[in-house]
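Reminder to self: tokens first, then the designed residues, so the page reads top to bottom the way the pipeline ran.
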């Protein structure tokens, strides 16, 4: 996984956590759900990138 991808995914995850927390604090269910969705999307992207890295490492040997 490239450094840019790692930063982008982490930023999306942090943004999601902030949205979720703000949604909790303001009792805004829509914002809270958006935050949870952002976090899930970031984690899915990270998992996909990890699979690509593992496959690339396996074929490089």
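Designed residues (61 positions):
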């Amino acid at each position: 996984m490239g450094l840019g991808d790692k930063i982008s995914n982490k930023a999306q995850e942090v943004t999601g956590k902030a949205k979720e927390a703000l949604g909790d604090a303001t009792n805004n269910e829509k914002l809270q759900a958006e935050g949870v969705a952002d976090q899930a999307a970031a984690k899915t992207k990270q998992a996909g990138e990890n699979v690509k890295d593992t496959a690339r490492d396996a074929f490089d040997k």
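The mean pLDDT is 92.
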